[in-house]
Amino acid sequence: MKRKMIMIIALLLLASLLTAFTICIDPGHQEKANLSQEQIAPGSKETKAKVSIGTKGVSTGIPEYVFNLELSFILRDRLQEEGFNVFMTRERHDVDISNIERAEFANSMAADLCIRIHANYSSDPSLKGTMLLIPSSTATYTAPIYEESRRAAEKIMASLREIEGITSLGIRVREDMTGFNWSKVPVLIFEAGFMSNPEEDVLLASQDYREALVEAIVSGVVDYFLSRR
Ligand SMILES: [Zn+2]
Question: What GO biological process terms does the UniProt entry carry, in alphabetical order (predicted)?
């Protein structure tokens, strides 16, 4: 009985520690691409489409934007259960929110971490595995968020590697992501796997695998915030 009370108090304390943190989830893409252009970084002459169309499951036919939102809902619910304050850039498919706008939304929420959910594509159908993308340490606009973005990514990658049979492609730095370059808060992209790989596409559609991925992200995120205090 006493032990149970202590457990409950410990859980409540943990939840109240985590309530202090705000997480933004950005489910990548949307129903219709918006190919009009926006600057890839503040002051840059280079532009990219506001929102690209994303990929599609080679076996399941599931569009990436559908997968991204479904996984994001599971992640949102689990993070809320842990006590985090969670916002999403979209909760529907029929929206039109550019990558700059998504970054600015996370900035305006003063998110402690922004997790962008995507699935991958390759012209090589044998390529599979999960990957985390983070902003660059050298670009002036992302230098201030590099360190925390990397630390969060390392914690998440460590717990993803514990999923049995998973292929981990590690953490990659990217300078060409509009959604990174406009972010003022730590940010990363979770690339769940390759929808161009016939087996991994089927796996990504399974509820069990989705829940395993989400559990790994949540445990990495909890580790990150507990170690940050
Ligand atoms: Zn994508």
Answer: peptidoglycan catabolic process
Domains identified in the chain, total number: 1
Q: Compute, in angstroms, the gap from residue 75 CA to the centroid of ligand 1.
A: 17
d(CA 51, CA 197): 23
Domain of residue 184, CATH code: 3.40.630.40
**CA distances in angstroms from 176 to 28, 135, 145, 158, listed in the order given:** 16, 9, 15, 25
pLDDT at 12 over 90: no
Ligand 1 mean position to 116 CA, how many Å?
Answer: 9
What pLDDT band is residue 2 in, cutting at 50, 70 and 90? Answer: confident
66 alpha carbon – ligand 1 mean position (Å): 11
Q: For residue 30, give both structure tokens.
A: 């949307």
**Maximum Cα–Cα distance across the chain:** 65
How far away, in angstroms, is 7 Cα from ligand 1 center?
40
Question: Residue 109: which domain range?
Answer: 2-228
pLDDT tens sequence across 121-177:
999 999 999 999 999 999 999 999 999 999 999 999 999 999 999 999 999 999 999
Q: How far is the CA of 189 from the centre of ligand 1 (A)?
A: 9
